[in-house]
From TrEMBL:
PANTHER family: ARGINASE/AGMATINASE (PTHR11358), GUANIDINO ACID HYDROLASE, MITOCHONDRIAL (PTHR11358:SF26)
Chain positions recorded as Mn(2+) binding sites: 171, 198, 200, 202, 289, 291
Coiled-coil features, chain-numbered ranges: none
PROSITE patterns (alphabetical): ARGINASE_2
Entry superkingdom: Bacteria
GO MF annotations, alphabetized: agmatinase activity; metal ion binding
Cofactor binding description: Binds 2 manganese ions per subunit.
Pfam families according to UniProt: Arginase (PF00491)
Name of the protein described by the UniProt record: Agmatinase
EC number, UniProt record: 3.5.3.11
Enzyme class, first EC level, given as a word: hydrolase
Entry cofactors: Mn(2+)
Amino acid sequence: MTTNITELFYQKVSQCLCPPGNGVFTVNTAKERKEKLHQSLYGQTTDIETVWLNSLKHLNEGSAAVILGIASDCGGGILRGANWGPLFVRSTLLQNYPNLNTFDLGDIRVIPHLLADKYLNDPTITNCRRALYQDENSAYAVSPLTITEDVLHDFYAAYPNKGIFGIGGDHSVSYPLTKAYLQAKKKQGKRAAIIHFDAHTDLLVERLGIDLCFGSWCTHILDDLHENHHLIQVGIRSSGKPKSHWEGTFGVKQHWAHEIKENGVQSVIDNIHSQLDGENIDELYVSFDIDALDERFAAATGTPEPDGLSPDEALAILKSLANKYPITGADMMEVAPFTDSTGQGISAAEKTLKVSAQISAFLIEQMNKN
């Protein structure tokens, strides 16, 4: 056993994850796309499980930015299809940014009907452990959110100087990604803020009785921040309640899309910096829901919205923040390549994947600087 990865972490990852792009459980669907991704990553399309497992032993030698795919859209609720995001976003990154330095940890193993283990009864957990691990007495979790959080707690303990770039999946996936990140940073004695790009607040307490979903994940990480206003939301424009409600109820800070249009992106940049000044923030995590962008640029998503940010506006904000604060964790969420409710056709997927890869590449580059 190589000494580059702890045996405990290796055992967990080898059971709970699968090769990159394989997180969507299918027999033949997208077979060619998966093989193309594997060819790009490993130089072959056969015996991928073995090649992937061997690659994990070199995680310690890899880049600071570590990709993890979570191909789950069970926490969504409008249009599904974000489970294909990890495969398609990865492929676009490799095509458009071939020199990008990353280590690909693989995909969380996803049973597509499950969300979090706390919603399951014991017989279901037993059956799912038998299906995933061929061992009904396994100690491992079976639902994507629970597996992700469990794996990442061990990841940050073993590799405190590395960061995860998560590719989803619907936005519920950001719950375990950010929760594990924030808890790890607190253990390291660091103060971290979350910069959340989205058309929606994701600040429901629950949705139809479910507390962990795409519309509520932000609410349930607030206790892991040093201060609630260290959650900064950008691009909000689709909400049944005004900005004052969300800021007053939850103590977060929001910058709505219309403020950017009316006052200019530099004004919002200045406001964010003014807010963070004096907060002793050490590092940033960026969670990017692709629907933060206007539907002209990002229609291949579950809830495309008009009057959103342009890619240039989003990148201007990110570049300004990156000039002052290390970005040490990030994610790209809600890219659904087969989905388009705007009528743009095939160009919707192409445009959405292009801008998602552009922003992802920037975030990964920043993570590698730190």
